Each structure stands twice: as structure tokens, then as C-alpha cells.
Amino acid sequence: MTGDKLLTIPEVLADLGVPESTFYRWRQCKKGPRAIKLPNGSVRIRMSEYLRWLSSREETE
């Protein structure tokens, strides 16, 4: 294990400031950050993956 913090969906939503429906639409369209689905059905996102995904969204001039 890498020690990478696992974020919950509510943590990601709070950071992004987007509605849950928007986040799940992004996931459905494969435009959201890669996630881990746990055996109990919960979804987690590695902090490193979240930061990589955010970085890839940066606009260039």
C-alpha cells in the first residue's frame, strides 16, 4: 500500500463544489477521476489520482 489517502465522494464534492449528480454524470461519461469500488459498494478516489485529474483539467493559453 502506498499510503495514498482515499477520498470519499462527499469529500471530493465539497472540494469541487459540484452537485453529486454532476460528479456521477462525469463518472458515467468516463470524464471523472478514476475511482476504486470497494466490496461493500462504496467508492473511493486516491488523492494522487484526484490531483492528477485536476491537473489534467488545467487550461493552457
TrEMBL record:
<dbReference type="Pfam" id="PF12728">
    <property type="entry name" value="HTH_17"/>
</dbReference>
<dbReference type="InterPro" id="IPR041657">
    <property type="entry name" value="HTH_17"/>
</dbReference>
<protein>
    <submittedName>
        <fullName>Helix-turn-helix domain-containing protein</fullName>
    </submittedName>
</protein>
<feature type="domain" description="Helix-turn-helix">
    <location>
        <begin position="6"/>
        <end position="57"/>
    </location>
</feature>
<dbReference type="InterPro" id="IPR009061">
    <property type="entry name" value="DNA-bd_dom_put_sf"/>
</dbReference>
